[in-house]
Amino acid sequence: MAVVGRLCVSVAWRAAWRGYISLPVNGSGCRYTNLRWALQTHCYISAPCGVTVQQSRQSSFFNKLTADELWKGVLANTSSRQKKGRGKRSKKKLRKDLNKGQIIGEGRSGILWPGLSIPVMVDGKAQVISQHKKEQREIQDEILRRRDEWEKKRKVKVKKERGWTGRSWGGISLGPPDPGPNGETYEDFDCQVLELKSVACMTGREGQKKSASALVVVGNGNGAAGFALGKAKDRLVALRKAKNQAIHYLHYIERYQDHTIYHDITTTFKKTTIQMRKKHKGYGLHCHRAIITVCKLIGITDMYAKVCGSPHMLNLTKALFKGLANQKTHQDLANEKSLHVVEFREEQGPLPILVASPQGAVRKDPETIEEVPDVKLEWNENVNAVQRLQYCKGRKTWYLQHIPSLHDQLTSHIAFPMGFRDSCKPLMKAMGIKEV
């Protein structure tokens, strides 16, 4: 009888170890299907007939949920909360990347597992389970502590990340465009956002359909630049589409001595007009903030520009590229007029500097000079200045009688406001007004 009992126990033990039957364990209220897994995890065998087992569940409620579902429960960012406005004034919780700084196989206790965190064989010897030294564990704890402190600190954004105002997408750098399908890279280019807005269109089947519209400009700072408009339901997708599309619509902009435009430009697109003025080196960019962003990507460092009419961002960008792409270089002007193009500088005095010569024969007859120059009158710049000058001439007698010493200074100051002295000279010559 004892032999039969020992035989039954051995058969049951072998079958339970291989996972064939369910083995009831004395002194425990649980039943294990696979005893091999139980013995490898939490099992202590005191005797062949009695086994003490610590209950351990393989799955739980938290193991069944994904990370997105768990974070959704913590942040409570539901559509109903956003519509009803609950908790908008409370401190907003941010999602954290808990895998940041973690290494597979490394834990808080610092145990080294062969085949996971260390090699299985080293110099022909099998490694055993060991533990990090105390100094190494302190270093890892310090790294984790700094990571937690860094998340709590207020992050300071640099200029490219901050943009124009810090609360809008305008002026934020997106980096270079993505590599092309054939492996071409655009590391020399940089992309910046001009406008990112939410748009909606009404459809008969879906109703109001919302999407995001992104206007992105790309340039290498050496004359090549372009822009594109991207639309998608997601903002990041719209930015990526606009960034990768802008690289395929590049314009080459001519620059005078690699710092400014060749001549004054007035360009119009729909209801938007831009007046651009050529400036000397070191003047800087005195323009609209979107024009400053585009000029930096082109490589223009000195220019004055004034926007008249509608400041619509897309029309403003199209007008700017239209004017810069249609400007005439000195060589184009020399070929058109069949004359030499010279430049006068203050440090050179009356000595002209040859800038460009025509490719063909030089015309012998001089260019006719009209008595009344064909100059478009701009109210803010020219007309207002000339009217003030005429007003001063009418009161010339009063100035000479009362303040004769300040007459020349006051007349010169009123005649040329805002620094547009050169633009007033053709009008003064046409109206018979001498410069004071």
What features would you describe in this structure?
The chain is of the alpha+beta class and 436 residues long. The protein folds into 5 domains: 1-86, no CATH class; 99-155, no CATH class; 162-252, 2-Layer Sandwich (Double Stranded RNA Binding Domain); 265-327, 2-Layer Sandwich (Ribosomal Protein S5, domain 2), CATH 3.30.230.10; 379-430, no CATH class. The protein has 15 helices and 19 strands. The strands form 7 sheets. Strands 9-10-11-12-13 form a 5-stranded antiparallel β-sheet. A hairpin with a 2-residue loop joins strand 6 and strand 7. The longest helix has 19 residues, at 134-152. The protein is elongated. It starts with a helix and ends in a 6-residue tail after the last helix. It comes from Alligator mississippiensis (American alligator). Pfam families: Ribosomal_S5, Ribosomal_S5_C, Ribosomal_uS5m_N.
What keywords describe this structure?
436 residues, Double Stranded RNA Binding Domain, five-stranded antiparallel sheet, alpha+beta
Count all strands and give the number.
19
Parts with pLDDT < 50 across at least 5 consecutive residues? 11-33, 43-48, 396-420
What is the overall silhouette? Answer: elongated
CATH architecture of the largest domain: 2-Layer Sandwich
Mind telling me the C-alpha Rg? 39 Å
CATH level-1 class of the largest domain: Alpha Beta
